[in-house]
Amino acid sequence: MLLPSSPRWLRAIAGRLVDGSFRSSATRRVLANSGWLMLDKAVRAVLGVLVGAWVARHLGPSDYGNLAYVLAVVALFQAIANAGVDAIVVRELARTPDQAGDILGSALLLRFCAGALGWVVAVLGEASLTSDGTDIVMLTAILGASLVFQAADVVDLWFQSQSESRRTVLAKLSVAIASAAVKVVLVLSDATLIAFAVVTAVEGMAAAAALCLAYRRFSTNRQWKYRRDVARRMLAESWPLIISGVLIWVYSRIDQLLIKHLLGARDLGVYAAVLPISQFWQMLPMTAAVSIAPFLARLRLQDESRYEATLVLTFRVFFYGGLITAGITFLFSDVLVRTLFGDAYRAGSQVLAVHSLSNSFCFLGIGHSLWLTNTGQTRVRLYGTALAGASALLLNLLLLPRLGLIAAAYAACAAQLIAAFLVNAAVDRKGFSMQTTAILFRRP
């Protein structure tokens, strides 16, 4: 049940979902679960902006750029290392809870082996390709350890399947807050880049340990066990999801790798520092979408026309909400960058102003995902991500040498426009029509 203090537009959407069915215990459980996820995103977003800005200011653009580069490389192997099994595991746990031990045990070994292999490949790859000496290789070796520790996130999949995400949030968020506090101490102690990398790696290890402790209080009925036939079924089904994960990485991270190699670590440091400010607002539609998704799924079964009208309203609120937040960031970009980062990052103010404009279509895309999920058209998102990734790669390659750092912000806006809106004109005409209706204030 939504509290009276909930945003008016969210209550308006929920008001269309009728009939008091949301008072059921199952739905209250889903809403409580969503609330914990909202808390996690909100706290992490605030920490990312405030503590991240302090760390960036302390390290300076060049060192911060090297840190961002290695994190982007590790993110690629993270997309592969989860073996694409997350959604499959949650689904199978819901379908066959009596086999939870076999499912979780098989997924754990798959993710551990994939993470260890990704760690080795990442380090060897940087050792053979980098021309920046041993620092980048050392950073990759340290930060790449998180690829192994993330195997423990299989515990989170168990909690998700039981609508017990609060256990994950309490475990991992407490570690994240402690890690942020240690980073503040490191800044005050004038610590080196390597020290911050070690803290980030230790955070991954501590989060894994915290999840294991949480699991002991809410465990499965059977002991975990690896089964080859279960693992094979997971891998046979997961390869499209692995490809999708890689495409998402290209879409969201390729600009940082290209900036590093085409413009240098200093420019990447400036770009990576301002990104969290632009992306800060994205927690709003993401958390709202989690809250209203169960209602939309139920409304679709009750009344198709009201369901579509509610989606149009959701698209409209998300799009113009993104436009408003983009306008706020655009207007105050120079003040924000100078206040948070100092003069060394002044070039980031223009980048932030342009990049923030991508939020309107990013918000719209988050709303569109609700439609795709309910209609089973998840392949549409794959098409959009592939086209957005290709456009981001091409535009950055063409424009970065000519326009400099601002080109990455232009490319990000173009990629969001393509992924969230334009691609739907070809692959999801019904969704595109509802998006257009929402943007132009037509009657659904």
Structure in words:
The structure is a single chain. With 444 residues, the chain is mainly α. It has one domain (8-439). 83% of the residues lie in helices and 0% in strands. Helix 3 (86-95) crosses helix 7 (154-161). The radius of gyration is 22 Å and the shape is globular. The two termini are 27 Å apart.
Order of helices and strands: HHHHHHHHHHHHHHHHHHH
Uncertain stretches of 5 or more adjacent residues? 1-6, 16-22
Cα(first) to Cα(last) distance is 27 Å
What is the number of helices?
19
Q: SS-based structural class?
A: mainly alpha
| Count of strand segments | 0
Query: What count of structural domains?
Result: 1
What Rg is obtained from the alpha carbons, in whole angstroms? 22 Å
pLDDT averaged residue by residue = 86
**Which strand-content bin applies to the residues?**
under 5%
Please give the share of residues in helix: over 70%
Tell me about the largest β-sheet.
Answer: none
The coarse silhouette is globular
Provide keyphrases for this structure:
mainly alpha; 19 helices; 83% helix; disordered N terminus
How are the elements arranged and paired?
Layout: H1 8-15, H2 25-81, H3 86-95, H4 100-129, H5 134-143, H6 146-149, H7 154-161, H8 165-188, H9 193-217, H10 228-262, H11 265-279, H12 283-302, H13 304-341, H14 348-355, H15 359-375, H16 378-403, H17 406-422, H18 424-427, H19 429-439
Helix pairs in contact: 2-4, 2-5, 2-8, 2-10, 2-11, 2-12, 3-4, 3-7, 4-5, 4-7, 4-10, 5-9, 7-8, 8-9, 10-11, 10-16, 10-17, 11-13, 11-14, 12-13, 12-15, 13-14, 13-15, 13-19, 14-17, 15-17, 16-17
